[in-house]
Amino acid sequence: MATFKGFAMKRLNEIGWVEKEVPECGPMDAIIKPTCVSPCTSDIHTVWEGAIGDRRDMILGHEAVGEVVEVGSMVKKFKPGDRVIVPAITPDWDDEAAQRGFPSQTTEPLGGWKFSNFKDGVFGERFHVNMADANLTFIPDGLSDEGACMLTDMWSTGMMGSENANIPLGGTVLVIGIGAVGLSAIAGAKCLGAGRLFAAGTRPISVEVAKKYGATDIINYKNGPIDEQVRELTDGAGVDSVVIAGGNLENTWAEAIKSAKAGGTVSNVNYLSGADNVLIPRVEWGCGMSNINITNGLCPGGAVRMERLADLALCGRQDPELLVTHKFKGLEKIEDALLLMKDKPKDLIKPVVMLDID
Ligand code: NDP
Ligand code: ZN
Fold this sequence. Notes:
ADH_Zn_CS, 2 domains, 10 helices, Rossmann fold
């Protein structure tokens, strides 16, 4: 195969099919053919909100599992035919930022996020993975392709949101936004020992999965400010930890800060777009002295992260497949799946596209 087809952002607000040359496989790298891919809300921010600026004919998508078709001469763990989980974030593990403990930020801010940002993504018949031994993981027996695909970004990001939220054992937690990312934060918060767990969102299917993942209370943000509802439900106390996984720049940050106890943590994983500044309410933030810490981060990538998430699923702690609500078949359906992700009907959490490529 000299060239292959992929589904791309042609420019801002325009998507379509492109034909590209199969990328070269460097000595430490691999070429993969995907067997299952899923669109992300971040693809929507990228194409229709210009969140990372313009991109021309860039193949979209960063959530995939697949089969190895080629490996470089220095790759030790993998060979053609292996079935692998491909993390959405594929850091350069020899970079200085990785050595400082921030692999997702290698080479430049957000630099670990390569697919559908700095290079072609996974919505094509082939894609390239850097540092295959450090970034790929075998799909373990007992995990389906679609379940494994949910680990690559949704579980990794959402669970990081909860890891960054300093949840005390038995502590109270609020997760704002219960799309696939917020639901994964709930799944993570439960694993990390959350006590009472508030989930803010309205899509009925998300509410159902939030309860299955461990939410104890559902808050409908359309019924009034989230912080007021949280304060009422906690006799005025507020919560120890807040994860922001949805919402907007006008209200959400204020609601998060106002929901947190002094000394609590607000952990953001939302991909901010739509305004240039984040507004923090000065008084409720204790004039900057409340000890309410704000944390944030880009999805963690790499082989070890994926292995650990796969173990959580295999040990029955949580079920990643609960996030998959729509299943398409065939490469040409990638467009439908992406547009579904853009429209967000009430019965949607995540669509996947199952592929059978030669
Ligand atoms: P969804 O759009 O599926 O979910 C968003 C959630 O926010 C929904 O539950 C929605 O409610 C809720 N919401 C909407 N408006 C409000 C509001 N005013 N107040 C409170 N909640 C509100 O998104 P995803 O779960 O797919 O992704 C969440 C975010 O995470 C996105 O911005 C995405 O780009 C980002 N992301 C970040 C990554 C990272 O590395 N940090 C990686 C991957 C994604 P309703 O139920 O009513 O629809
Ligand atoms: Zn994503």
